[in-house]
Design brief:
about 280 residues; alpha/beta; Lyase 2-enoyl-coa Hydratase, Chain  A, domain 2; 2 domains; lipid metabolism; fatty acid metabolism; delta(3,5)-delta(2,4)-dienoyl-CoA isomerase activity; isomerase; Enoyl-CoA_hydra_C
């Protein structure tokens, strides 16, 4: 399957260099997420992981220089069923809906390949959820963030509050920003530990930097990259002894790859390695 065939109503997909895919959010004017968009987002990453051939790194950005995403489209947000007066049944229905929403936005974490968020302009509410589920976050210097959910009377429920304690090295600042919904700059996001790099400029500059990083990752052994991603994610959620056990099991298989010999030869020869895809071509 050609990755460009995965483009949909509000998601433009392109292969910008060998094994590197760019996913661009295009729902004007501000990439506000309705249910159709968040379901399409999750389905896209599932297809990139299972149906597209030999994807090794993905960059997510916005088509609109002034907005990464304005978050949830409140005009289209699903509310409780007003015809159902039983609180337990309403709660069960809403729980299912929220879990489907969470599952879709977190799909990048379950992919074998790394996903890089190239954040620029305003990034509100769901923008933080979405980028938290990516492996790496780069921000343009013009990026501004807000964990906005407090201002609409709810706790962020699609991933921000789950991820931030794992991501940040400054929980005091994380709590302050989550409790107040105050805007914070790209520099503050870096201080928080939310982004790993601030790129001077806007959309074009941060996208270029993220794509360059994606190319570097795509040149490495996909066996080594997916193993590293799985082991890091496992380490985040488990103890050191549990992770070491998991690593031993994982690498007992992965160490048998031919990619090791090719990686060593490529490094000695100061060339880019030649690696096969993780999965056969469909």
């Amino acid at each position: 399957m050609n990755v460009k065939d995965l483009s949909s109503k509000w998601l433009k997909v392109s292969e910008v260099s060998p094994h590197v895919v760019h996913v661009e959010m295009t729902r004007g004017p501000v990439n506000a997420f309705n249910e159709e968009l968040w379901r399409a987002y999750g389905e896209l990453f599932e297809k990139l992981a299972e149906e597209a051939y030999d994807v090794r790194a993905v960059v997510v950005s916005s088509a609109f220089p002034k907005f990464f995403t304005a978050g949830l489209d409140l005009n289209a947000a699903k509310s409780a069923d007003s015809t159902n007066t039983d609180p337990a049944r309403v709660a069960i229905s809403l729980k299912k809906h929220l879990q489907e929403f969470q599952y879709a936005i977190h799909t990048p974490e379950r992919c074998d390949f790394p996903v890089i968020a190239a954040i620029h302009g305003m990034a509100l509410g769901l923008a933080v959820d979405l980028s938290s589920a990516c492996d790496i976050r780069y921000a343009a210097s013009n990026a501004r963030f807000s964990i906005k959910e407090i201002d609409i009377g709810l706790a962020a429920d699609i991933g921000t509050l789950a991820y931030l304690p794992k991501i940040t090295g400054n929980m005091s600042l994380a709590r302050e920003l989550a409790y107040t919904a105050e805007w914070f700059s790209a520099a503050e996001a870096e201080r928080l530990g939310f982004v790993s790099r601030v790129v001077e400029g806007g959309k074009d500059e941060v996208l270029a930097a993220a794509l360059e990083l994606a190319k570097k990752i795509a040149d490495k052994s996909p066996v080594a990259i997916t193993g590293t991603k799985r082991l890091l994610t496992h380490a985040r959620d488990h103890s050191v002894p549990e992770n070491l056990e998991y690593t031993a099991v994982w690498n007992s298989a992965a160490l048998q790859t031919k990619d090791m010999a090719e990686s060593i030869a490529a490094n000695k020869g100061k060339r880019i390695g030649k690696f096969g895809a993780l999965r056969p071509k469909l």
